[in-house]
Amino acid sequence: MFEQIKLKNGIQAIYVPVAGTKAVTVLVLCRVGSRYETRKLNGASHFIEHLMFKGTERRPTTLDISQELDSVGAEYNAATSKDWTGYFIKSSSDHLNLSLDMLSDILWHSKFSKDEFMREKGVIIEEINMYQDNPLLYLDDLLESVMFPQSTLGWDIAGTREIVEKMKHRDLVSFRDQFYQPENTVLIIAGNLGRSKTLAPKYFAGLAPKVEKKPGKYKKFTSFKKGARPRCKIKYKKTEQVHLGIGFPGFPHEHKDLPALQLVHVVLGATMSSRLFIAIREREGLAYYVRSSVDPYEDTGIFSIRAGLDPSRFAQASGILKNEIAKFKKEGVTREEFKRAKEYIKGKLQLALEDSASQAEFYGKQALLMKKIKTPAQRLAEINRVKRSDIIRVSRKIFDWRRAGIAVIGPYKNTSEILKYFSK
User: Fold this and answer.
1) Which phi and psi (to 5°) does residue 193 adopt?
2) How far is residue 330 from each of residues 281, 333, 397, measured CA to CA in Å?
3) Residues 6+ apart with CB under 8 A from 68
4) How confident is the model over 125-172, as pLDDT tens digits?
5) pTM of the predicted structure, to 2 decimals
6) Which domains are assigned to the chain?
């Protein structure tokens, strides 16, 4: 069972014991991401994540940091999302002391030199170029820009080339100092805990706020607007495959119908036995990949479908996709599908949580983004309470083409070329 403690400076500490492992993961999550940014600083959260590894007073260079961690065989990385930024180190429990020391050092004592700032601009711009050149990577960003046109949720996490080029060092440091504060931070230690409860306060309880200013808040998303037809955005690219993304309104993290929507996802597009995969790829050979996903946020969410399609058979694939959704809304799921979907979620969760890093993420994101932490057993109980009638009710609620968004990367220039397949 996990334990949640608030350190004297306001940092939430979560301890998650994992039996039968000698590994331990230390994860630090900060409540900041691209949805907290201004247009002038779009990409700042991601930029800050990069600079955290460029040296501290005690470890002056990137090499000093990486060599120290590599010397004990540790795994380490960081990630930025729309609403959180995270840093983790996974190591043998013998090196827990190093992991805690390292993370507290880079998060509170990174130098953020102007030289590194200017040098890293070029790295981030090339990262942006890489994403935009790869349709599989860029499709999600394009789709969210369609689904959230008036919200920071629709902005790219890394920002744009133009914004990154113009970004000022002082503005980035100011943004960091505002958000990287104890009250905005969750520390999770999962695995073989050892002396965690003694060491965590030693390295984290003494960290002080960098400024008196409170961390900022994001503007809450209001609603998905209805239109006569779906919203659509195209990125023209000469490709041999059309990359199609379709988004529908979803639910926030703690919405009562989110478990039902997760089951909709499993039956419709999560697996190689899902309806869309069988209908579009296996029976007709129209796509290499076709899948769905559920992406909740604190105040909203989306249900999305993605596929890589043959341009010459786009109409056929689109028709099948629409028919499968219409059938789902009308008939729901069979008893056998319903049973298999619940077992799938149970099995996936059990497999994932064998790893200390997954345990840290499971509990940490809840602590950061939700009002209450639920255990895996409680999550599965929510899934088990879903009825077949909930599936059809939820699918009729979300699969509304008037509130849908469509993103396409491929050899098209006009949205009318796409919308004719999805409009009544």
Assistant:
1) -70, -30
2) 23, 10, 12
3) 59, 98, 102
4) 999 999 999 999 999 999 999 999 999 999 999 999 999 999 999 999
5) 0.95
6) 3-204 (3.30.830.10), 231-419 (3.30.830.10)
